[in-house]
Amino acid sequence: MSHDRVVLVTGGNRGIGRAIAARFVAEGYRTAVTARSGEGPEGTFTVRADVTDAASLDAAFSDVEKQLGPVEIVVANAGITKDTLLLRMTEDDFDSVVATNLGGTFRVVKRASKGMLRAKWGRVILISSVVGLYGSPGQINYSSSKAALVGFARSLTRELGGRGITANVVAPGFIETDMTAELPEDTQNEYKRNIPAGRFATPDEVAGVVTWLASEDAAYISGAVIPVDGGLGMGH
């Protein structure tokens, strides 16, 4: 069984990342999370890392390797938003979001791939968003960074697909988190009217898809975009 494998989830201290890490722990994986602050869920090994800084990531990976062993499954989840309309968006609003969401994924996956190539086995799971393919006003920086993960996973599949390594994208829609809870009720209802399922997802519904992609059942799936959005975006 693969359940003794080592998993690293970036941004695993809150929201979807935390739910993903908790689900891996529940299924018996040896689970580490990166966090800039706070701690991962119970049963995880938390390391400090900033995904925009390759040296801090390298140190974090080294800690995980010492504590748990080589990382076999990596979930690139860390992300930020700086929402504003195009004409108001500053260079920094754009560059910082792309540096974290896309550049961070590049740095994490590059570091993880070394151990996966040695092991001739690996799972790369990138957390995108429905807005990467559906679009969203005020999110040109964010949606661009999330759409880019599709090309990333597909190019990685072509590079490493013959080495027992898969790379896939999970694209969540609206999820019940602290962020959506703060939206006014009429805004929430407006969003729900546009979602065929008529509700937001629970973080655990995203986590279940991620752990399935990490399993042997998904060994022949690579370069896929899997929406977890209640039908909002209708896939790719």
In a few lines, what is going on in this structure?
The chain has 236 residues and is α/β, with parallel strands linked by helices.
Mind sketching the topology for me?
Elements: E1 6-10, H1 15-26, E2 30-35, E3 45-48, H2 54-67, E4 73-76, H3 91-119, E5 122-127, H4 130-134, H5 140-160, E6 165-172, H6 178-181, H7 185-194, H8 203-214, E7 225-228
Parallel strand pairs: 1-2, 1-4, 2-3, 4-5, 5-6, 6-7
Q: Which features characterize this protein?
A:
236 residues; alpha/beta; KR_dom; Rossmann fold; 7 strands; seven-stranded parallel sheet; 8 helices; 3-oxoacyl-[acyl-carrier-protein] reductase FabG1
Written overview of the protein:
It is a single chain. With 236 residues, the chain is of the alpha/beta class. It has one domain (2-175, 204-226): NAD(P)-binding Rossmann-like Domain (Rossmann fold, 3-Layer(aba) Sandwich). The protein is built from eight helices and seven strands; from the N terminus they run E-H-E-E-H-E-H-E-H-H-E-H-H-H-E. The protein has helices spanning 15-26, 54-67, 91-119, 130-134, 140-160, 178-181, 185-194, 203-214, and strands at residues 6-10, 30-35, 45-48, 73-76, 122-127, 165-172, 225-228. Strands 3-2-1-4-5-6-7 form a seven-stranded parallel sheet, sandwiched between helices. The protein is globular and about 50 Å long. The model has no long low-confidence stretch (mean pLDDT 95).
